[in-house]
Amino acid sequence: MSKVCQLTGKRPISGNNVSHSNRKTKRRFVPNVHTKRFFIPELDKWVTLRLSAKAMRNINKKGIYAYLLELEQKGVDTGVKLK
Fold this sequence. Notes:
alpha+beta, two-stranded antiparallel ribbon, CATH 2.30.170.40, 25% helix
């Protein structure tokens, strides 16, 4: 399963492990993605999303429905039908 956040679009990036002797080997930086269910009272339904920790913090701050509306206005495809 891909490690991509459905709301923020965060995905793995590549970089280097740098040892004490300054040798560099390739590695991946993977986002902190979790599968989480949310209840949207405005729509009266449950939604399952794969979210990064940053997206969960934004949802806690703004609320799930307001955050999804904000992303929809920006043109982000969240995969959730709001209407």
